[in-house]
Design a protein that fits this description.
Strand content: 15-25%
Signal peptide: 1-21
Distance between the termini: 68 Å
CATH architecture: 3-Layer(aba) Sandwich
Number of strands: 10
Keywords: Signal
Helix content: 40-55%
Organism: Ditylum brightwellii
Order of helices and strands: HEHEHEHEHHEHHEEEEHHEH
Strand order of the largest sheet: 3-2-1-4-5-6-10-8
Number of helices: 11
Number of domains: 1
Domain NAD(P)-binding: 28-235
InterPro entries: NAD(P)-bd_dom (IPR016040), NAD(P)-bd_dom_sf (IPR036291)
CATH topology: Rossmann fold
């Protein structure tokens, strides 16, 4: 009887351990936000699978810390991988996170692939496990149907961005692709203007829709965006709350700032 109870306790402990940790696929891991997502997931005991052009670059961003077999890195351009490659890499993953973006260079903005984010989202959502969560980092410049109507000036600027700056159109198309498919779980996280911060202050607010002006509003740190995305992976209730939604994240204003 004692042996049975002992083995039962071990089994329960193992199940709890599995429930508290997840295997997550991250694309855009060497980016300014993606590196925070990877580090937070690993530091909390999760396993991470990622595709990067340079493993050395990623490890440098992670301070060359040894995470053992909890970090699996494949060196490749994400769009060079086959469907079977992506199926294999995302197998058993609880969540797929995309922090992918275009490099802010002439080639990165106007060169190919112009639909890097959209094509990656389409391919990953077709390859990922059926019950996996897909998390996409977008921006508050990407519209959601429930958002308040923009001012004429804002609509003109967004129109110009859409047709003159390919990365903006790419982000819009990626979010639109997800919005029109409710057959799997997805959330689009829309940060306001991004700033750098080495560690997450957790001092941020989440809104169901965009609020205030598109220009000159509150900023949010990349580390805080990463923190929110990791919380969505960890927290069942929060994940259900924002399922098929596009929450906006911004820095929490102090009372005196709100009065301005």
């Amino acid at each position: 009887m004692k042996n049975l109870l002992f083995h039962l306790l071990i089994l329960v402990s193992h199940c709890i351990s599995l429930a508290m940790s997840s295997k997550v696929f991250v694309v855009g891991a060497t980016g300014a936000t993606g590196k925070h997502v990877v580090r937070m997931l690993l530091n909390e005991g999760n396993s991470v699978v990622t595709v990067v052009r340079s493993k050395d670059t990623l490890m440098g961003l992670l301070d060359d810390q040894d995470y053992g077999d909890r970090l699996e890195v494949k060196e490749s351009a994400i769009l060079d991988l086959t469907h079977d490659d992506l199926v294999s890499l995302t197998k058993d993953c609880f969540a797929i996170v995309s922090c992918l973006g275009h490099n802010l260079t002439f080639k990165g903005i106007w060169g190919k692939p112009r639909q890097l984010v959209t094509d990656t989202v389409k391919r990953l959502t077709k390859a990922m496990p059926e019950n996996a969560l897909f998390l996409l980092m977008g921006s508050d410049g990407v519209a959601h149907p429930i958002d308040p109507k923009r001012t004429l000036g804002e609509r003109i600027v967004i129109f110009l961005l859409r047709y003159l700056i390919p990365p903006h159109a790419d982000n819009e198309m990626a979010a639109d692709y997800l919005y029109n498919d409710r057959s799997f779980n997805w959330i689009v996280v829309r940060p306001t203007d991004l700033v750098d911060e080495e560690t997450a202050s957790k001092n941020y607010d989440i809104f169901d829709k965009s609020e205030g002006s598109l220009f000159g509003g509150p900023v949010v740190s990349r580390a805080n965006v990463a923190h929110f995305m990791v919380e969505l992976i960890k927290d069942d209730k929060m994940r259900e709350q924002y399922k098929h939604q596009m929450p906006v994240i911004k820095h929490k204003l102090a009372p005196e700032e709100k009065e301005l």
